[in-house]
Amino acid sequence: MKTSVREGKGGVQVLDLKGKITIGSGDVQLRETINKLVDEGKRNILINMQDVTTIDSSGIGELVGCYTSVTNKGGKLKLLHLPPKINDVLTVTQLITVFDVYESEQEAVASFAG
Amino acid sequence: MSLSSRFENIEMAQHLCGKLLEEEKISDETRHWILMALREALANAIKHGNAEDRSKRVHLEMNVKDQVLRIRIRDEGEGFDPEKVDDPLAPENRFKTSGRGIFYMKTFMDEVRFQRVEGGGMEIFLTKNLAAVKEKEEKGS
Fold first, then answer.
1. Distance (Å, rounded) from C-alpha B78 to C-alpha B123?
2. Which residue of B has its CA nearest to A55?
3. Which of A46, B113, B117, B137 is deepest in the core (most CB within 10 A)?
4. pLDDT tens, B112-123?
5. Residue B118 belongs to a domain with what CATH number?
6. How many structural domains compose chain B?
7. Residues in B touching A68 (Cβ below 8 Å)
8. Structural domain harbouring B68
């Protein structure tokens, strides 16, 4: 998996993910990237999932873990451009209600101000 | 076939299963979820069964007979009690970082059955009735 971080309006960290978030390939990388942002004091994180091709239960577990660690630090973690199959995987485990999911980056970034 | 306990081997097995399903006229959607169930079962065998010990093998059999896909996976680990796996939908488990693999297998396959192997290891059987899937997809189209 490839990751890149850019800063949006209001200091929101937009994390672009590309590729797979599966066991042994991307799951740990996601956790480390989020932990690094949290350690740097970043609290508002938007994960752009548009180019994520595959996710498995391990990847879902890491997403949940990232959500918890950001929230526990008083921050917010939200998702952008969820591909339909990843939406399905989150839906069947009832996790879709946990995450704030956006289709527009502009709206997503603005939502952190509220 | 027998695979070493490496996560990289999951994709090779998925590729082979995909080839097996090529002749079956099922949708890409159904194929995707079957391959995800296979991924979860193999990951379970490598991680929880064989504890990522590369000297231990994962044994895989897949076939389609009478339009039923049958997958059998056996690890060489200590085994576990599938009844003791937490329900990932229970509110107290919602934020756990693990424990969803078996749930996904059960969601996407018709039957998921575990069995302890005499002498060690765990076997998992996954079944999907492709004829029923095709009938459902034809009615839906």
1. 11
2. B36
3. A46
4. 999 999 888 999
5. 3.30.565.10
6. 1
7. 95
8. 2-140
